[in-house]
Amino acid sequence: MEKMTPAMQQYYAAKEEHKDALIFFRMGDFYESFGEDAKTIAKELEITLTTRGKGKDGEKMPLAGIPYHAIDNYLPRLIKKGYKVAICEQLEDPKKAKGVVKRGVVRVVTPGTAMDSSMFSDSSNNYLVALYGDKGEFGLSFLDISTGEFLATQLTDEEPYDRIISELARMGPSECIMPPSMLKDAHLKERIKDLRIIIHEFDEDLFDHKIAEKVLLDHFKVSTLEGMGCSELLAAVSSAGAALRYATDTQMRELSQVQTLKTYFDSEFMVLDAITLRNLEIVRNVRGEGNDASLIGVLDETKTPMGRRQLQKWLLKPLISVDAINDRLDAVSWLHDNTLVRFDIRAHLSYVKDMERLVGRVIYGNSNARDLVSLKKSLESVPLLLASLQECEGIELLESTSSKLSSFAELDELAKLIDSAIVEEPPLSVRDGGMIKPGYNEQLDELFDLSKNGKQWIAKFQQKERDRTGIRSMKVGYNKVFGYYLEVTKANISQVPDDYIRKQTMTNAERFYTPELKERESAILSADEKMTALEYELLTELNTIIASHSRQLQETAALIGTLDVLANLAEVAANNNYVRPAITSDCRLLIRDGRHPVVENTVPGGFVPNDTEMDCSENQFQLITGPNMAGKSTYMRQIAMIVIMAQSGSFVPASHASIGIVDRVFTRVGAFDDLASGQSTFMVEMVELANILNNATPKSLVLLDEIGRGTSTYDGYSIAKAVVEYIHNKGRVGVRSLFATHYHQLTEVAASLKRVKNYHIAVKEDGDDLVFLRKIVPGATDRSYGIHVARIAGVPHAVTSRAKEILEDIEDECMLSEEDRKGSKKKQRSSAKYTQVILFDQDASYGESAPDPIVEELKKLDINSMTPIEALNKLNELKGKLA
To answer: Which SUPFAM superfamilies match (predicted)?
Structure first.
């Protein structure tokens, strides 16, 4: 094996330290990768894989590299695929290095710890989540180092981990760290992966409560975590400490932008589980990753990235406090009614950039001069926003926002400082100079004059030499390798004076210098180098000053985000004809002319609105029948969306709405196979149904669509009816529910269950033609119109005609069977006494018969304590014993 070069020794040392990461090894103008890393990088980035020299095993070494200045184009592609990348930089100037250049890993980039703006495809939070649990208590901590946001919660859960998965789905982290002991739980691991979250293992010891608590105390420089609300939440503290330690380890520096830890509890918000978020398409549609055709896609006309993030949080965590909701609605209502003020506020907000991430980069140390200009322009909008809010007296949320914004008066001076220092359009690189305004620093001005005069001298020197030699094409050039030179074409070489000293031979020209040019070159280059170094030093000092105001800047950014959301919701309400909902603490839902906020924007010819009235007495359970494609699912979804919008603080698509607080929204709408885990459509449906039946409360809202359709007609009907009865009777007071079904026999339960009311989607028949009126009306329907729907969908006429004939035959057979059944009942009744006598005689002749074990097992069952799913499973078990 060949002896390794010092550089390769550095590479293998870095790889040994970061075994689970790909190494980007800086060599001159390239980031190089070697061995298996090179193979992976070449494949994932679709770049050329070459070989050179030999590796540890004596074989040719695979090699792949990218230009150092193109890292922002390539690195995000690896991170989004779940890779960790360790950046191994040159730690000294190669020109000044004695021997091999010192190199070392300066940071490790992972999906959840990205800082560079190139890593983010949109303005959403980029959370790292740490998950830790013991004995059913789980801590989850969400850290976004790009904005400094740090959240923690603790919850009780057990397999199948629905609460954990729901919280992860709601927060949408890009990376999850867990200790090895938890990664052994294959079911939990697979459910997290199903959410497309990258999972990485982290040291078990660093989840230890004592170690994690010390990490937090040291970072926040406090003696107790009581002020952060988590001192007694052991699992939450363990997860938070591990998250912060992991982020600090990867970034290899203190994360000063993380200035506080906020503890929250799911009892403070409406619970929207992962299934409901998917079915209602709150932040993304079920057909893709984008937010087109989603609720946030309709409601998001925010002007700032902070506002976009805040709006998403409000929609994913609707409030359950009547007062808190009304505070938001008061602010939206005032902005809705004060049109000119709203226009002014939104105009000022359009100049505000992503302050949270700008401040994060300043503190982190990777900001550039353009970032500071963006921060300055954002701060310059604050006085204009305050002026627009002068008339909002009595509107608590707007008043408090205005008051807090005005308390940060020192930020005006910060904006003026940035303005005095940085040019309006600085270069992207902080190493090229040209960032600092003239007049900001006296020493820099002197160097600038020297450099400028030097360049003027070069121009005069060029003209002087042309005049002296008569070579009109002669020019003075410059490059970093050879410095300044006089370039003369080969055709004019004979005219070159004797005092010219040859510097470089080109194909069509020769390059020369003179002692006079060499002397001036030294002065000019010295001034340029000193000027560039001084500009970088001044920018660093300015960043330090800005970082000292980081808390005020982060709070200002959050306040602007809140104001942006409020003005946005007012604007959307005005543009879409939404109304303010009345929020009550009872369980009544009254919606007049309700509309689906997403569908109404896509339906040609206008959306047909519908009324809804639900309460906890006579209208608690809506049993909805009607044909496919008539709009049952749309109607149910729009009610849930209106409730979510209202409790988020938004106006709603209706002519009137009164919303009794909902604590959870459950949905079972649509069919999704989970073949990867061996679950059929029906199994998925039953699992989701079990979650709803076990967790719904009297203040919940349940949406169920076609329960029982994935099995035989009799089984499906039995399940559906049992579910209706269970929900109606749950907790003695039942649950507000909408239940769409094709089992028309179910409509009979309205006669025995007092809070169930039948509704159906109206249709108009004209011969064989069918028109969906999209209107929900009281009463039941006795037809499904399936053949009509098949014809509308384009099924061949021969098939639909034959289906109609078969249906008529089946209906005739059913009528005959019904007559036979009624006739046979008389015979059964007349022979009942005889049968009883025979049975009695048998008992008398042969003694008391042995008890039937299945009958005895049935007698022991406590049916009232069983869920419908448990009852069905037991019934299936007993059926098997009879076979």
So the answer is: DNA repair protein MutS, domain I, DNA repair protein MutS, domain II, DNA repair protein MutS, domain III, P-loop containing nucleoside triphosphate hydrolases
Which amino acid makes up residue 624? Answer: I
Largest CA distance in the chain: 143
Q: What is the value of pTM for the model shown? A: 0.83
User: How many other β-carbons are positioned within 10 Å of the β-carbon of residue 147?
Assistant: 26
Q: What is the mean pLDDT of residues 215-230?
A: 95
Q: Quote the tokens at residue 331.
A: 């602010």
Q: Would you say 406 and 370 are in contact if contact means Cβ atoms under 8 Å apart?
A: no
For residue 627, say whether it is annotated as part of any ligand binding site.
yes
The reply, when asked if residue 630 is annotated as ligand binding, is yes
CA distance 280 to 777: 23
- Which among 71, 68, 74 is positioned nearest to 29, based on CA atoms? 68
pLDDT the model gives residue 120: 78
Q: Write the pLDDT tens digit of every residue in 760-816.
A: 888 776 666 666 677 888 888 766 667 667 776 777 877 777 777 777 776 666 655
By the 8 A CB rule, do 275 and 281 touch? no
DSSP 680: -
d(CA 485, CA 464): 14
User: Is CATH 3.30.420.110 the right assignment for the domain spanning 124-268?
Assistant: yes
CATH class for the domain made up of 6-109: alpha beta
Q: 633 a known binding residue?
A: yes
Tokens describing residue 783: 């037809």
Mean pLDDT confidence for 841-866: 60
Nearest-angstrom CA–CA distance, 476 and 544: 41
Cis peptide leading into 581, omega within 30 of 0?
Answer: no
Predicted confidence (pLDDT) at residue 677 exceeds the cutoff of 50:
no
Q: Closest by alpha carbon to 864, among 726, 721, 758, 664?
A: 726
d(CA 276, CA 93): 56
Residue 531's closest CA among 520, 523, 519?
A: 523
Between 444 and 792, the higher pLDDT residue: 444
CB 630 within 8 A of CB 775: no
How many angstroms separate the CA atoms of 127 and 107, rounded? 18
Q: What single-letter amino acid sits at 637?
A: R
Spatial separation of the C-alpha atoms in residues 489 and 412, rounded to whole Å: 58
- The C-alpha atoms of residue 819 and residue 591 are separated, in whole angstroms, by 46
Query: Which of 414-418, 751-755, 777-781 shows the lowest mean pLDDT across its residues?
Result: 777-781
Annotated ligand binding at 28? The verdict is: no
Domain ranges of the chain: 6-109, 124-268, 442-543, 582-795, 799-830, 837-882
Q: Which CATH superfamily is domain 582-795 in?
A: P-loop containing nucleotide triphosphate hydrolases (3.40.50.300)
Provide the pLDDT for residue 285. 81
- Which neighbouring-strand residues pair with 764? 771
- Which tens digits make up the pLDDT trace of 322-344? 999 999 999 999 999 999 999 99
The mean per-residue pLDDT over the stretch 411-439 comes to 91
Tokens standing for residue 459? 């121009």
Distances (CA, A) of 520 to 138, 499, 500, 576: 70, 16, 15, 69
